[in-house]
Amino acid sequence: MEIHINIIYIILCLCPSVCQGLHLQGKWKTSNFFLFLTKFGFQKTDPEKMVHTQGVIYGNITTNANFTTNLQLVVVDSEYFIQFYGNRTLRASEACPNMFSKIDMLAFDSVCSPRGVEDFLRKVPCKKGGLCEDEDNPTNVIHGYQFTYKVRDTERPRFWYISLVSCYRNNTHGQKCRWLHNRDQHIYLDYDIWLVNGDPSAKHLNPFEHQFSFELHDVFEIHLIVFSICSLLFAVWMYPFLKQRHQITNILTLSIASEILGILCNLIHVTVFAFNGWGISWLGDAGDFILLVSQCVFMLFLFLVAKGWQITSIELSRRKILFSLWGTYTLLNLVLFIWNLTEVDMISNTDEWQTYPGYLTLAFRLVVMVWFIVELRHTFHQGLHQDRLDFFQHFGAFFLVWFVYLPVLVLISTQISALWRYKTILSISYAADVLAYAVLIHLLWPARSVLYLIKGEVPLPTYDLEITGLLDDLQETNIFNKSNVVMEGQDFNSDDELFGKISNKKIDKKGERFQNGIIANGGLNHVDGVAVINESML
Fold first, then answer.
1. Which residues share a beta bridge with 162?
2. How many secondary structure helices (H) and strands (E) does the chain include?
3. From the CA atom positions of the chain, what is the Rg in Å?
4. What are the pLDDT digits (tens) for 172-186?
5. Distance CA 45, CA 157 (A)
6. Is the pLDDT of residue 483 over 70?
7. Do the beta carbons of residue 231 and residue 257 sit within 8 Å?
8. Alpha-carbon distance 224 to 213, whole Å?
9. Residue ranges of the domains in the chain?
């Protein structure tokens, strides 16, 4: 844990000394009529801590060109944004009046609506070196910037939407205060805007909430906690992994390691974002992709165990069906990942799972779950050894729930506000993965896995076998009673449910192989206090 804290401390030291929130910078060509900038969730305002809990939007919007009419910076909540945004596609002569028809009911304007109670609008661009025209009280403006919005909502958290639009109010007497489209003035505006939760000068109170949209509050803590737990599990897993190298354990190790790497990438992105308002977006996307790879590798691991590969059989039967299902599942997840990067509408409150690729991926997950159950049931009936039966019972019971949880969670999340949905799905998904890894580490601990894994590559210490009671069985003569009378030159042919099928093994009349601790029908070699699962005898 101390190592993790040191890593984060180093990252923070490399960031700028002044912390800000979501940072928007760019240029807008006014001939494009409308530009949606962002959606930002502001927290609920506490009346007793108004300054430290209100939302703040501040920045500069300027131009190097000469301009004759002002355009509009619009900041509204979802109640007013839906109509405003929806009418942008009307004819040019009708778009502006219809977009602002509902906003004008409450928006303040010193000339056209002096009784307005909401501070929704700013005339832009602002004059260089001065405040925006609508900023009539300079003390309310953050020092060094041209405009400031203060968002206060004492009822609940809420999304607010920020846009630029080529509309202006007519000042002629015949059509005074009528909204018109700016057709003739084509200039570029430079904007530099910050959005934060709380007082910008008090960011130290909670830097990993102050800088983030409300739906991302606590995400840093979620990544950090899961990264710490997974790292601890991985350290624990190294003991059984190094004690008993195996193809099955190799795949599981790859899944856990890639999960940790993906979480670390997201953790670094979120940490840097808290300090510069941009983060490292490519690193966050890379982290999500690595997590996708981890999930697909883990799904392959589950398929192979359900087939009994390296547990009841060395051969992998019906592999074309297995890899076809796994390949399709991986492809669907890849399509969903790309769709989420390019097609999900930021304005809407839908997430990646509420899209056609999301629905298809969840439906196919249920299909492979059915195949998983069928294969697991078939494998279960192949083995008669009680330890294998116990393993498959525990394995099947838990991972059946693991298959089902995500579709159920997504279905329930449709009833959860978008302000809470992302972190709810993220935290529960992480919890399911962590619990899955913990269960598998328990099931594959050497003291247990020696009873049902075959083709082990590394010797197991004697004390690991003592825990299972297998070593005591080796010392009893009745362990050899599974065979009939063993005589010199007689072939031995039996099925050992512990280590697989053995046939045509020769035993000499003196029983020297028994005296050396070798089970002729099993492939377990006990020499000098070390038990070896002997591949050559399988």
1. 38, 75
2. 16, 15
3. 33
4. 766 778 899 988 778
5. 8
6. no
7. no
8. 18
9. 22-210, 214-449, 460-537
382 secondary structure, DSSP code: H
Q: Are 29 and 186 in contact (CB under 8 A)?
A: yes
The tokens for 181 are 């489209």
User: What residues contact residue 422 under an 8 Å CB cut-off, 6+ apart?
Assistant: 215, 216, 219, 351
d(C-alpha 104, C-alpha 89), whole Å = 19
Render 322-350 in DSSP notation, one character per residue.
HHHHHHHHHHHHHHHHHHHHHT--SSSS-
Q: Which of 78, 149, 95 is nearest to 349 (CA)?
A: 78
Question: Token pair for residue 472?
Answer: 């005591």
Q: Using a cut of 0.85, tell me whether the model's pTM lies above it.
A: no
Other Cβ atoms closer than 10 A to 24: 17
Enter the tokens of residue 82: 């839906």
Distance CA 75, CA 420 (A): 22
**pLDDT tens digits along 204-238:** 677 778 788 999 999 999 999 999 999 999 999 99
Pairing of strands 491-496, 460-461: unpaired
Q: How deeply is 342 buried, as exposed, middle or buried, from its count of CB atoms within 10 A (0-12, 13-18, 19+)?
A: exposed
- Residue 120, classified by CB atoms within 10 Å of its CB into exposed (0-12), middle (13-18) or buried (19+), is buried
Backbone angles phi, psi at 519, to 5 degrees: -85, 115
Single-letter residue type at 280: I
**Domain 214-449: assigned CATH number:** 1.20.1070
Percent of the chain with pLDDT over 70: 78
